[in-house]
Amino acid sequence: MEAQSNKTENYIHGYTVEEQQRLIEQALYWREKLILRDVNFLPGDRILEIGCGAGAVLGVLGQAFPQLQLAGIDLQASQIAYARQHLENLGLLNVDLQVGNASQLPWTDESFNYIYNIWFLEHISNPEPILQEAYRVLKPGGTIMLNETDYRTILIYPESADYRYLQDALCELLLDSGGNPYIGRRLGLLLQKAGFSRVKNLPWAFHYFQGENSQKLRDFIEYIYAWLAPTISQMIEKLGKDEKRLGSGLEFFRSIPDLQESAASIIVYRASAIKVSY
Ligand SMILES: C[S@@+](CC[C@H](N)C(=O)[O-])C[C@H]1O[C@@H](n2cnc3c(N)ncnc32)[C@H](O)[C@@H]1O
């Protein structure tokens, strides 16, 4: 089995405390709309989040379902240290947190009822070994859930050539860092290939526009801006992109809620499947 790279230096969001706090905010932003949508765990279920980062999503799941047995793994030790503290602060003790590579999970076969992934496979160039590992550690009858976007689906109105330039650069940056900006549309195919059954891959669209929706539009734009703005310097340094055009694309994006007639949207894909026992 080909091992996933252990390198984390190309990871586009980095591992600063500000970024870890942003992950916590991000999980709160998506709590009802996405993370808890259509999930139904039983008391005592064991759930593993692969690529759990700062423990933000484990925190949301653990608070909503206090009788879950939580586990998480991340390649970066500082993420796991932050996660441990964050979950303890929420009163979630005894979470099984491990530093390690998703393509070599440190759990025995058939350990979990659920595997949960979110905003993770977009950073992975070779997801197949990771999904094979997920399959191995899932119990027969267990469920896997993947949540990822497609960076081409972050749309704005009115159109802006400079925003398009920025969006192209973002997709290029993810590819350059070993990720996949289009992973959302591939999730179902990947689960089928990994041997899962009853595969679903639903596109959940979120669309906000000026009017009664204005605050939601503003919140959405600010949420995207919070992770997009810090990646601009990498687009300039690593890809040689035009600083002025990127700056103007970002400024236009942020001004969307202040324009008279404006809107923005994104699609997040939820793929789920079962490991059937034969
Ligand atoms: C954008 S963060 C998402 C964290 C978390 N899922 C959340 O939504 O808050 C992606 C995480 O994946 C981790 N990661 C990347 N490659 C990995 C690998 N091969 N094995 C385990 N973790 C990995 C990174 O270190 C990072 O913490």
From TrEMBL:
<dbReference type="InterPro" id="IPR050447">
    <property type="entry name" value="Erg6_SMT_methyltransf"/>
</dbReference>
<protein>
    <submittedName>
        <fullName>SAM-dependent methyltransferase</fullName>
    </submittedName>
</protein>
<feature type="domain" description="Methyltransferase type 11">
    <location>
        <begin position="48"/>
        <end position="145"/>
    </location>
</feature>
<keyword id="KW-0808">Transferase</keyword>
<dbReference type="InterPro" id="IPR013216">
    <property type="entry name" value="Methyltransf_11"/>
</dbReference>
<keyword id="KW-0489">Methyltransferase</keyword>
<dbReference type="Pfam" id="PF08241">
    <property type="entry name" value="Methyltransf_11"/>
</dbReference>
<dbReference type="InterPro" id="IPR029063">
    <property type="entry name" value="SAM-dependent_MTases_sf"/>
</dbReference>
<dbReference type="GO" id="GO:0008757">
    <property type="term" value="F:S-adenosylmethionine-dependent methyltransferase activity"/>
</dbReference>
<dbReference type="GO" id="GO:0032259">
    <property type="term" value="P:methylation"/>
</dbReference>
